[in-house]
Write a structure and sequence with these properties.
The protein is mainly beta and 344 residues long. It has two domains: 37 residues, no CATH class; 306 residues, OMPT-like (Lipocalin). The protein is built from three helices and twelve strands, in the order ααβββββββαβββββ. The chain is elongated. The relative contact order is 0.15.
């Protein structure tokens, strides 16, 4: 009986090798290998309750009597409730690719337009306000990366990643309300070639109706990005996630149209700005597991880009143009995030 049993067991092992059967230990290893190789996907739908500010200025002080800066425009919007779609695909135990795309209507805000004459020593010679309405933003992030560290007992990991960001904002400003007009702004003639009454501003000037489109501005950032993302499970149902992204180089365009001076003085766009910059992004979230597949999150996000070097160019109605250094170009957006995630 023992010899028969041994021969029978030996025969089963041979059959197992031929047909691909495995012992329990071998089967477990195969399952782990399959889990490492399979695709794992996480998709999400969320919102970013953000506020933003974009500021630019240029220096034409080589032309008297303009100061440095010569003009500064600050577009400060009150709210943009972004709708965002996200997806993250993991390939094997380490590698992943991800993207998020979002857009929103900007729901109000204010444009502050300051002009400077050298006689006012850096204080605005003229300041006006306009109302922001009918504006919007769009963005796309695309990244690839890999896990570089796993925390003890599988509580989370640290991932390194790199990719590309497209971030576009459009502001439309309506009406013009004069806030201040200095003595220099009201008295200095801006046309020394043909002297006459041509001051920068007139004290007590009547406002332009809020129904009149005064200025349109579109700024777009194209950024290379690299950074790290960390995920740590505090308890079975609660995790913290965070990322820090550096944008060592980006390219930007900024187009401004002054509709009240088109087509008599300027073209559309009236002013174009081009240059390079740098920036950084950061966000942190608390994620709560609702089921084995669904989770929800809340958090906070900050995006920031700034000028390194750029050129401001004015386009006159007669086809001529003139250029000066762009001394400031900065975009900031921040606010609360929230959404749901589904894993499969």
């Amino acid at each position: 009986m023992k010899k028969t049993s041994l021969r029978f067991h030996h025969g089963l092992c041979i059959v197992a090798l031929v047909v691909g059967c495995t012992t329990p230990a071998t089967f477990s290893i195969a399952q782990d290998d399959l889990a490492d190789r399979r695709l794992r996907v996480e998709v999400g739908l969320g919102t970013w309750l953000s506020v933003g500010e974009t500021t630019w200025s240029h220096n034409a002080s080589v032309v008297s009597p303009f100061g440095n800066p010569t003009s500064r425009l600050t577009y400060e919007d009150h709210s943009a409730n972004v709708v965002e779609l996200t997806a993250k695909v993991r390939v094997g135990p380490r590698w992943f690719g991800q993207f998020n795309i979002g857009g929103a209507r900007i729901g109000g805000g204010r444009l502050t337009d300051d002009d400077f004459l050298v006689q006012d020593g850096g204080n605005p010679s003229l300041r006006t306000h306009s109302d922001i309405d009918g504006s919007g933003l769009w963005y796309l992030n695309m990244d690839v990366g890999a896990q570089v560290l796993e925390f003890h007992e599988g509580r989370g990991s640290v991932e390194a990643m790199g990719g590309f960001q497209y971030w576009r904002q459009r502001h439309r400003a309506f009406g013009v309300r004069q806030v201040s007009c200095s003595a220099a702004g009201a008295s200095i003639d801006l046309d020394p070639v043909m002297p006459g009454v041509n001051p920068l501003c007139v004290p007590g000037a009547s406002p332009i109706s809020s129904g009149v489109l005064a200025i349109s501005n579109t700024n777009t950032w194209y950024s290379l990005r690299t950074g790290v993302h960390a995920d740590y499970r505090l308890v079975r149902w609660l995790s913290l996630r965070g990322s820090i992204i550096v944008k060592p180089i980006n390219f930007f365009t900024n187009d401004d149209t002054h509709h009240l001076r088109v087509p008599s003085e300027f073209q559309d766009p009236s002013f174009t700005m081009r240059g390079i910059g740098f920036g950084a992004d950061a966000d942190v979230t608390a994620t709560v597991s609702l089921t084995s597949s669904f989770s929800g999150y809340v958090g906070y996000r900050v995006w920031w880009n700034r000028l390194i070097d750029g050129t401001w160019k004015g386009h006159q109605a007669d086809g001529r143009s003139f250029s000066y250094p762009l001394t400031e170009m900065e975009s900031l957006r921040h606010g609360l995030t929230a959404g749901i995630l589904y894993r499969f």
